[in-house]
Amino acid sequence: MANSSTSSATTLYSILLALFLATLRVEGRAFFVFGDSLVDSGNNNYLATTARADAPPYGIDYPSRRPTGRFSNGLNIPDIISQSIGGKESPLPYLSPELHGTRLLVGANFASAGIGILNDTGIQFVNIIRISKQLEYFQQYQERVSRLIGEVETKRLVNEALVLITLGGNDFVNNYYLVPFSARSRQFALPDYVPYLISEYRKILRKLYDLGARRVLVTGTGPLGCVPAELAQRSRNGECSAELQRAAGLFNPQLTQMLLGLNSQLGSNVFVAANTQQTHTDFISNPQAFGFVSSKVACCGQGPYNGLGLCTELSNLCPNRDAYVFWDAFHPSEKANRIIVRQILTGSIEYMNPMNLTTILSLGN
Asked: pTM to 2 decimals?
């Protein structure tokens, strides 16, 4: 009798799993996220690090009104993309104990605040998930899912999934320009540092491809010299830092060219460059056109432009987060994130090269 009950339970689980897989194919696709604090949905909550967003007022506009580990007042870019591709929920942080069973089939978020392309980026944050480890976790994820649905279905799920990767900003603000005469700035002049970053990033993306990724959105950096943190430290009259803007201006076009070259080598448009610098520049040059009051002052913070230190319960806090491009000293507000995702979905080739996300989704599986 016990064996019969076990067999029935196993059969029922198999049926439910098959139904879930069929639903996943119809309603959406798996979604995987790699990168830094712009896309971290809470992995760092499980790590002993200062690079965390697990205390109020973070999450003040999130559906639960509680901090989740997202560096946002509400939803972040992966959340909004997930909604846009038909996901019923955003992929959970890979370190979340809730990520098991059929929830694995939705995808996973491997991102960790503070990391960069280089392993020495963000060393001041100590215990963060560097990109090499994120890729190891992706491999581990596939092994876990294979035990659930088999190798063939796992390969299909990964090949058909959407992947988002966001790296590069920290390699400037939390490495090259972190302190005067940093080790990397002594090693490289800026025009030499950028190609080095691009060559290292290419290795990461090739590894991602080797692990099965076939639809990969790669975001560039924003206008690094215009974030409130840099205005607070480097600006006299609200002008963007010319040196950091130069860094972004070198990095983003070279990133796009590298991606197009990699696609050419692979014979397929696997990698798509998202020009988030241009989207942010649109906000900054004409914030009112997007319904913002300020593109210089952070909603949450202290000091000039609310750009010094961390966003905490003791910080200045704006009453209307939708009026601000920046939530804290570095990160966009939910409203800004929504506009960024709109460009990812429907932007012209100036914003999305060689195609936007709507086109990618229309290509089918």
From this structure: 0.93
